[in-house]
Records
---
Amino acid sequence: MNISFDIKQFVEALENSCHKVRKKTFSKNEVITNYIEKRNQLCILLDGSADLVRYDLNGNRTIIDHFSKYDVFGEVFYIVSTNNELFVEAKGKCEVLFYIYDDIKKKCKTNCKFHETLTELLPELILNKVTNLNMRIELLTKRSIRDKLVGYFNLISSMYLTKSFSLPFSLTDLADYLSVDRSAMMRELKLLKDDGFIEKTGNKITLLYK
Amino acid sequence: MNISFDIKQFVEALENSCHKVRKKTFSKNEVITNYIEKRNQLCILLDGSADLVRYDLNGNRTIIDHFSKYDVFGEVFYIVSTNNELFVEAKGKCEVLFYIYDDIKKKCKTNCKFHETLTELLPELILNKVTNLNMRIELLTKRSIRDKLVGYFNLISSMYLTKSFSLPFSLTDLADYLSVDRSAMMRELKLLKDDGFIEKTGNKITLLYK
DNA sequence: AATAATTTGTTGCTTTTGCAACAGAAAAAA
DNA sequence: TTTTTTCTGTTGCAAAAGCAACAAATTATT
């Protein structure tokens, strides 16, 4: 996305701020943070990729959100309801910046550059988030697995500006992201292939339509 | 929600701003606005209720979002992709404020009170939006109609702080909101009733569990 | 390099959901 | 008030999705 430059500014300002910011490194499958009521943490993924995951009472795993470089997450962006364990897990080596959001409102006495950058960039940062959430909702409201898959492929395709791409997810994770049964999704992928809509080798997809 | 006071401030500042703000009234079923690429309009619903609606290629109607007093909407919160007609329709008499977002960034020369209030309140406004979107996603990721219904009821119940409430939707609209077939939803509602989980008279629901 | 763990691909069977159609109730319009 | 329109409630049947189980392939770990 074209906000990466702004984010760099933001991160720099945050790191040089008068407030306490923690930076930490994680390796694959480690839990980066879990969402706790009222804490209002704001995290920035400086490097790597991670998933926001929930397990429901039936043991179904859902990938609520997928984060890559410079994405933001934390309770700031999510009201935590007690009956859902939410946590962010690293998909590989990750570098993460932690910050408590509430401090942003309390103006520091020295009126540092940090607050200036923050108030300027935060809305844009969050709007970017909103856009992602809306795209997600658009996918989830599709009525069939096929429509979800095609919708997702179109999204990736228009993001990378190519009809041929590797999925940023494993197929198992993609099913959890689209909130469908994995084997049913595999079946549908095969049908899409048989019907000549896509080509598929491993998790490399080529769109043949339009 | 507890942001209504802040929104009032916001609206006041907006109306007295140095920029062009349009206010307009709509009656039931009128189209308040449709989402147009790159316009970046920001709207505030001053009174009434309205739905953000999409019709897909198969003619399925989906209620993407439901707005009530002081909710914000517009392209600012949505990247418009060409293959989806998105519009907001009034569910009854509505009063709406229109504003073009891009003007917010361009600081006016006179450094008016408006910009101050705006930069202060906007992040909070949008965060509120994010929270709603996340709740929506949580509902949509539920794997069955029953889970979606129960999830939705729990939400309403905890919002109104009562186990007995009238649905803010017609049942037809609720199905579109949960993105499921209406008759299948009706069937599931009946099963929930038969299983003793809920009581239902018209669109008044009472939760019997917990 | 060998072993263990995870992911992919497939399938038969069951359950859930969607579709279509219709009658009655309720709400809106004339 | 009467008529028209929309919404609710129901059902049989068809289609889609979920579940479970397993082998093959791929990827990590030792």
---
Amino acid sequence: MSAPVKYSSQREAILRFLKSRKDHPTADVVFHHIRKDIPNISLATVYRNLNQLAAAGIILRLTTDGKTDHFDACVEPHYHFCCRGCNGVMDIDMEPFPELTKKAEEVSNYKIEQATILFSGLCDCCKDKL
Amino acid sequence: MSAPVKYSSQREAILRFLKSRKDHPTADVVFHHIRKDIPNISLATVYRNLNQLAAAGIILRLTTDGKTDHFDACVEPHYHFCCRGCNGVMDIDMEPFPELTKKAEEVSNYKIEQATILFSGLCDCCKDKL
DNA sequence: CTTAATAATGATAATGGTTACTATTATTAG
DNA sequence: CTAATAATAGTAACCATTATCATTATTAAG
């Protein structure tokens, strides 16, 4: 889980792909897209690199109620929404409330390093269907 | 995943155990504790009942960065903290911000049913050790 | 108090996302 | 160019959770 020290074209392709997407793909989605350019890339390589990049703070891992993690190339603090219809993960474009973390730290005495705010419900598409 | 319709002593024991705990045990922890009273209870029964109770809104499922879910007998809206040292999940005793959800719904157009706020970092114990 | 219908259980196999392992390949410093 | 070693591909293993199914327990009706 250490930061990458040697270049690899696979890692570059993975990061490039993630940056090109506004949604937040799962490892499997990344894998299947990268395969178009690098047909023999291994799923393990995708996971390894996503983990490395996340550990290095270059990308963000999003753990939602679903069982599969999603990944986000935007590491600026922002909020997410997970649709219980399609399991898609989208951004919520509102400015973060830093006072939330401050308040929580005051109240708890814990060393709070991160605040994850995840909304859930139904997205535009699923709102109508369900 | 439907609500329970028949009584079972196993379910009662699981719910009673959950209510007795301030931390938020995993299915496995519930299983091992219930086993002291009901030695031949099955892990599947624990999972089945935790799922039912959560679906019925009687308990809360907490999905954290760790790989295993935690369960909470308190369904009042409140915030949680997950320690990256010991993977424990604790309550944060501060009043919720309902305006968060309202704002997010305005901005996004999604039907937001739930807001999950999860802080993470180091708890009192792990703060010193790490 | 039976009895019949069926929900719940225990035991265990299966599933699915993720990680570990290992021989091979690619990068990089000297 | 060469040696050292990080990264990879392919695949087996892992582990939390779920599905399956024969058996048991609950419950409503007679």
---
Amino acid sequence: MKDRKQHVIKMAHQLFIDKGFQATSIQDILDYSGIAKGTFYNYFSSKNELLIALFTTLYKQMEKERNELLIGQDPSDIEIFIKQMELQLEMNRSNNLTALFEEVYVSNDEELKQFIKIGSFKSLRWLYERFVAIFGEDKKPYLLDCASMFMGILSHMLKNYSIAVKSPHAIHLVVRYSVNRIAKIIEEVSQSGEQLLEPELLDAWSPNGKKNNQAFQQALHRIILNLKKPFTQNIGSKKQVELLDFIYEELINRQEPRLYLIDSVLDTLKKEPQLKRTAGMQKLEKFINEYVKNEK
Amino acid sequence: MKDRKQHVIKMAHQLFIDKGFQATSIQDILDYSGIAKGTFYNYFSSKNELLIALFTTLYKQMEKERNELLIGQDPSDIEIFIKQMELQLEMNRSNNLTALFEEVYVSNDEELKQFIKIGSFKSLRWLYERFVAIFGEDKKPYLLDCASMFMGILSHMLKNYSIAVKSPHAIHLVVRYSVNRIAKIIEEVSQSGEQLLEPELLDAWSPNGKKNNQAFQQALHRIILNLKKPFTQNIGSKKQVELLDFIYEELINRQEPRLYLIDSVLDTLKKEPQLKRTAGMQKLEKFINEYVKNEK
DNA sequence: GAGAGATTGTACCGATTGTCTAATTTGATA
DNA sequence: TATCAAATTAGACAATCGGTACAATCTCTC
């Protein structure tokens, strides 16, 4: 069951690499992975959901391998950092991730956009924290600027250099070049004192920012409690209570609430006669849209 | 007639800004600009063609205004350059150009992709030439690297700063910050001597670079003439001669040879018994790959 | 072997791009 | 002013796509 779903993801990934995301129709995926349409929509609620599932597996794998490079090593060793960057760029290349990203970045699906935005935010944060470890706490005020610039230098130089030179060492050369540049920039900005982005912004951007807010937690708790009421006496309604608790836990405790899961659970709950079209459910949806998805 | 077409472009532009390119259907454009579907397809062969027409007008306007800022001014004055960058970024912003670019960059339309690629290449070249004027001829070997890095720094910092701070001065601050950084980088790389991109690459990338080369034209002419030989006496073989002439014209006269067309014509020609697997055909293919596609 | 859940195949819906055509309007010329 | 070619219109139409619905079938577990 689980491996079958993974198999579909894998086959779709292959098609996306070959033809691109938009150009791959669902029928292509069905044919290529040998499943029926009904099965597909049993696994994923849409083509975008499949893409999110694909991204998630790739992200996790990348994070795992990237972190393994650090085990037992000195976090301030810049050579380790270079290896990490090379690993990530190499994975991007072999999975055609940059192309997929760009293709999807401006999609019409709000959920997908959010997902990508969170992904790029996370890698910016990771970069910032690595910079702190490498260049020292005293440079902190400038390191978010520098992380952002490093991303820009790296991506642009890699793109242009790859066009110019077909070399298997492109990634290696560009990473080293970019690291040399950013090291000098860090020296320079910490002398001139110029700064654009305060590192505190990371907390504000973080999905946790809102969640650490006391008012947020209380409001959510109140809403969920209210919705659970009709079920608390009825023993047969354990499932609904569990679903509501799940939403609460996911929003409060999970670093990155899986919005697609929450949406799915909301859908399930909305099918419940006792919740369908109630004011409480609408309030919950509006609340999530407002404070978690930052919409409306 | 002409102004009517321009009117459609203008209306579509408005819709693209409001809803995005993908999300705007042709029907939307028809309704909003009050024309019939037939008229639309009389003006543009597709929605992508319309987008290219829109980009073209915006490009021209941007180039015009940007160059006007230089009239009667010192080209090495960095303040003028800053004004030029601000102008371009401001136009990007007000026209939602960056979003449109990204949305379209990975489209499936080869022509559209080529168009965008040429656009970004042109602005890289412009930036390089401005840097030469500002930072001096002696820095030339490093200025293509720096132009590329400047683009990266600028776009990433602007994106992140705009997310962080809703300020009308965002563009102003980010441009100045980026210029300060790149100025120091130029000093630094010209001391360390590190280089990735040779400025000569600009000529190789340029559509005109190779084509203005006398040797290129003569060689191509010789190859094509050679291939036409078997057909010149036979009146029934007009088509093959026309196809060969087409390739020649397309490569020599067209600013951006439509490679997909040429490939298609080559395929057709290769099916011709008199050309199939001949040394001449192979020479032509190799020639095109080498001098036009910059491959192998 | 009975039954629940997963899977299949297929028909169907609505939206979209793009083609085609017959009828009508416009505009320049004689 | 009359004429006629070109431009424009309205809409039917085909093809494709994402997604829904559902009855029939298969698989696995108790």
---
Amino acid sequence: MAQLSDNIEQFIKELMREDAHIELRRNELAHHFGCAPSQINYVLATRFSVDHGYIIESRRGGGGYVRIVRMTTRDEPNFLDTLLNRVGNSVNEETANAIITNLNERKMITDREAALMRSAVSRNALALPISAKDVLRAAVFKNMLIQAFKNLEEDERDDV
Amino acid sequence: MAQLSDNIEQFIKELMREDAHIELRRNELAHHFGCAPSQINYVLATRFSVDHGYIIESRRGGGGYVRIVRMTTRDEPNFLDTLLNRVGNSVNEETANAIITNLNERKMITDREAALMRSAVSRNALALPISAKDVLRAAVFKNMLIQAFKNLEEDERDDV
DNA sequence: GTATATAATAGTCAAAGATGGTCAATGGAG
DNA sequence: CTCCATTGACCATCTTTGACTATTATATAC
């Protein structure tokens, strides 16, 4: 039997046939299907997760929205899946760097992007004895900033 | 959805396209948009803060005004130092995002790089009850991977 | 001329409105 | 029974407004 969730899923996929990303009002959609707004979240969580190849972005408050972005899996069908599996729930710096280097060599990320990634996952950025997340975030972010701007004059920033 | 605040923001940015600083009447602008004058303050506070790269000056009384000044790199001799200081030892997600957006608007980082940075400092990436740094790193890294590959066909990866 | 009142601005802050998110309890299909 | 689906109460976040406050220029009183 066509479940409500299935219908909502199909409805959204229909909307996304043309565009790789759409924006919708959670409440509106819920009203359209005559269900609880949280039902929408359920559908998104179970059928539009990262594993399914989608990214959900949203915003609350007046003018709020839910944006669904379809990730493109390129040549290799489950490319992202493969990557994510390789990383798993835990990954050391060496492995992470190897993956980054590989992506960079395959021209899937630029040199600068690779550098950004390395700095974000570096020992320096994460190996702190901290509890507060803001403190940790600052460390990560600083590291990325340094990476991005340490060679200001050597980069063709305008070209990118 | 085009929110009032968004419209006002765009309106102001349009005005500033040519000039690095503009002057306006708060009440006039409010009237133009048919909203409460304090709405203007809200927009300025949330979209034209120092973190966003703007400075607000104003004057009350007859002939009062609000001046919005876009900061330029020249205003900040040690650009990186300024950035790092602004981040400090602790920074919340909101501020970090404002800085990233500003860097992006100033074309100092690409859209993709901005996205990478945002994902690295996002709540999603860092708000974990962390014990093992590898676990945290995995979260950060996954986040960045997702960000990097979410819209392959829309990017001119070959150009970069 | 100075002091004072008045008008013309802008700022602050807390409350209300408008969305979306989470999670645990409940329902229902196989 | 068990698992997926559905709901609703409660939470979080963003926007908009309005009452009250602060500051400045100008007109008026003396």
